[in-house]
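This section describes the prediction task in plain terms. A model, or a person checking by hand, is given the sequence of a single protein chain and must write out its three-dimensional structure as a string of tokens. No templates, partner chains or ligands are provided. The sample shown here is typical of the held-out split.
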Amino acid sequence: MEALFIVLNDLSSYDDLLELFIKLEVRGATILESEGMAKALLKSEGLSSLIKNLFEIKPDNEIGKSKTIFTVLSEEKVTEVAEAVEKLLEKSQSKVKGFLFSIPVNNVKSFK
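The expected answer:
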């Protein structure tokens, strides 16, 4: 089993991603509101002046808003889902679309 994490920066693809999960029979996932490091640094008064040259400055509402989605799947399913997500996000016009990664997990138990 593997935990698949998707950090989605292009929120215009959010509904399409959830529809894709249903189509691929991903039965459950946890979705968290998240923000990127650039957004956190720009919100910090003391640090924002130090990082102005490190990040391309965009309007505040365009920086760092994201969703972090994670689920536990078989290795084969992770490959299938990752390929489908990549294909979905290729269509996006956004400069920063997001990223994904997976890590192995042990002792998966569901409490019902």
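For orientation: Helices lie at 14-23, 37-43, 45-51, 75-90.
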